[in-house]
Amino acid sequence: MNMEDIIVQLMYTTAPINVVTPENKIVTGTGFLFSVTQSENSSILLYITDYGVVKDAISGYIELHMARSGKPTREVVRAEFDKSILKECKLGNLDLVALPIGTAIVELQNKNITVFYKSIDINLFPKEDEIEDLGPIEDIIFIGYPNFLYDKVNRIPVVKHGITATPIINNYLGKEEFLIDEGTLPGFNGSPVFVYNRGIYPTKDGMTLGSRLMIVGILSQELQNKNMMTGTGLSVVTNYRALYRELNNYMLSKIGTSIEKK
């Protein structure tokens, strides 16, 4: 694969998570790597995922690609954790957690294991002018590891394409959420959701030629038809505003620094 391609890079910002519950049950999900710059030479690496995946965990691990000659291989290594890492990692009242995994990666490096990954940072959040350009319907992609379906030979995630079902800038039912029209599967919760356009896309000033990419939320749940107990094809996404705010609060309370680019 062409590692210069932006979608290929996004695939390596995500990683599957597996946790063990007190009943010895395995729960799986998706998360993504987010980096917060502290200085020119240092940053904090967080793994953000759905709280429902880890809330009952007694232990678990995140699968990351091993690197060779600066490129990802098919081999993976486990960044392991126990329930102690979950303390005070919840992002406010959101069903999300931010796990600090920089130490786990350093421990792997101390064992001469080189890990390949990419990370998202504040630059992918929508800017004010980009927010004004968002329409009621936008093309979106999300990336994750649905149970039993992702490519476990090449160890790469599944990328799905859909559209927004409610405007990103609105709060669906008064919550900091919006809906997307694209049925999901178990294991996708925690997947980052992006507005992605390549070629021509609409803005408030008309059609624009080029590409556009921004993170607009995190997949949190598939909507069910309560009367028929079936899927609706719609899924709930926690929006970027809530994610930005709670990430910023988390970093200020834990480290005394914001997520703003230094």
Describe the structure concisely:
This protein is of the alpha+beta class. The chain has helices spanning 6-11, 51-54, 102-110, 128-133, 240-254; strands at residues 14-20, 26-39, 42-50, 59-68, 71-82, 96-100, 115-116, 139-144, 158-164, 177-181, 192-203, 206-225, 230-239.
Task: Describe this entry's structure for a reader.
The chain has 262 residues and is α+β, with helices and mostly antiparallel strands. The chain folds into 2 domains: 6-121, Thrombin, subunit H (Beta Barrel), CATH 2.40.10; 122-245, Trypsin-like serine proteases (Thrombin, subunit H, Beta Barrel), CATH 2.40.10. It has 5 helices and 13 strands. It has helices spanning 6-11, 51-54, 102-110, 128-133, 240-254, and strands at 14-20, 26-39, 42-50, 59-68, 71-82, 96-100, 115-116, 139-144, 158-164, 177-181, 192-203, 206-225, 230-239. Strands 1, 2, 3, 4, 5, 6 and 7 form a 7-stranded antiparallel sheet that branches. The protein has a 6-stranded antiparallel β-barrel with strand order 8-9-10-13-12-11. The relative contact order is 0.17.
Features:
262 residues; alpha+beta; Thrombin, subunit H; 7-stranded antiparallel beta sheet; 6-stranded antiparallel beta barrel; 5 helices
Computed over alpha carbons, the radius of gyration is: 18 Å
The overall strand count is 13
Give the DSSP E fraction (strand runs of 2 or more residues). over 45%
Looking at the overall shape, the CATH architecture of the largest domain is: Beta Barrel
Number of domains: 2
CATH third-tier fold name of the largest domain: Thrombin, subunit H
From the N-terminal CA to the C-terminal CA, the straight-line distance is 32 Å
Shape: globular
Q: How would you sum up the major sheet?
A: 7 strands, antiparallel
CATH superfamily of the largest domain: Trypsin-like serine proteases
Spell the H/E element sequence: HEEEHEEEHEHEEEEEEH
Percent helix among the residues?
Answer: 10-25%
- CATH C-level label of the largest domain: Mainly Beta
Count of alpha and pi helical runs: 5
State the low-pLDDT regions, or none.
none
Mean of all residue-level pLDDT scores: 88
